Amino acid sequence: MINSSSYVFIILSIATGLLTLLSSVGIFISLIIQRRVDRLQEILEEFINLSYRNETNLTGLMYNLIEKYQMHYIFPQKPLKLITQYIDCSIFFVSLLWAGSLLANYQPPFSPWLFIQIFPLIIGIFTSFFFRILLRDTINQENPLLETIVPAPTKLRSISYLSHFINVSVKSILQQARLSLHLSWEKDEQNKKKINVLLKQELSFDDFFYFLLLSYEEKPCFVSFGELHFRFPPDHITGKPVPAQRNINIPLGHFHFNDLPEKLTAEFLVFTQGEKYPVQYNYQLTQGTNFLSSQSNPQVNVNHQIVYTFAKKKIKILSCEANIPFLKEFNPFFYLNGERYYINTLEHMAPDNLQLRTCTEEIFID
Fold it and tell me: Model pTM?
């Protein structure tokens, strides 16, 4: 059992230490959050203003804003380690002093009451480690605890985040992404012509669901759909995280054709959270040397004939009056799982014969 007269002072010491830790941690966290929120607010205002100036190519300026926000978001690595080490040492020595004080005032014989007496010490040590986690998450570059208040720089490239939380026009942002389609062909092992479908972006906007339909002479020949969510590795030289990239190439699948067609039409739908109507791109693809690409800017509009919602990691189309083949048939497969699917509809026209394939080709940068 511990001496009752000294035990009161030990409890007061633990309480005082926790209150001091609470105040210092609160001040430190509030300063960091205030700094980041202020910078985020300023950068978002610039970002929103740029998004509506779609008459010129502003992807470079948007890219610089994302990099600028990352500079204010990331805490330098060396001070982060020093702060973490200082916190660990402080917790260790304070816990040692608390335990030593209890041990010095321990008086035999042993009593079950001792477990109740040391319970405040356990609570104090546990609370200290909780504050350590709070501080670490505040200064860490990937912060799940404060994600809703201070989002990671990668959120500035998320179409769904910008649309859902910032109320930015999806159409305006996507026009700055400069989405384009590129089809090239090569011969496969069976000496057939394999046409590869690529989606190109000047700036890596992601976090949206797409549906692509290619048609030849008004007959559907290829369908691809899935969720785009990029995960860029850190820079291989500096080790710094990469929040955005330029000139992204996204493989959407491939299909076989007897010969490279001279013309193809493409309908590309973009579904994002925070919206109920998709943005639709209409492409006219014409033949080059051994490729097909759009020679003019696509028609971009919000398709009010399609109404959708996000529910349970899926996209559910509530109503569809648009004449887009295979959109309703494939809707049960619109999962938000980060995968890209495709199918050659010339080979599988019947709804009960929809043999989807997963596109496993990696996204690459020019």
Answer: 0.80
